[in-house]
Amino acid sequence: MGFDLDRAGFGMRLFAGVLDTLVIVIPIGVFVYLYTGTPSLNWTQGVTWNVLYIIYSIILPVIWGGYNAGKRLVNIRINKANGKELNIADMFFREFIGKFLIGYLTVGLSTLVSALMIVIRKDKKAIHDFVAGTFVSNEV
Q1: Which of 29, 43, 70, 104 has the fewest Cβ atoms within 10 angstroms?
Q2: Where is the RDD domain (predicted)?
Q3: Residue 133: CB partners within 8 Å, gap ≥ 6?
Q4: How many CA atoms lie within 13 A of 95 on its CB side?
Q5: Where are the beta strands (DSSP E) in 23-91?
């Protein structure tokens, strides 16, 4: 696999991330509003939301062949650099270690560095891609 697939750039990856969040937040927000009668996004703050989103980010791409909701909508997907199928360990390293933990420990600096890496590098790999041995490809 490697470089023979077209790599997804920063704009597509960012757009997929925004769509992914909206696909999750809007339905849950409507449910919370109907339950509480108060429009609020306070439920997206704190540990519970982060844990649930990380679990979603780890499990769905394994089940759905490299896609989450946002990536499916813009036709990009996560691939293993060695051509094998994604597994839970790959996604754990990508999402929890590569994005969340390193992002937390660097107070978000690694997120900015990753964005620059996607823009500048020919292979368009971010820190979390290196941690997990993945890349994101365009599927169209």
Answers
A1: 104
A2: 8-133
A3: 80, 81, 82, 90
A4: 24
A5: 76-80
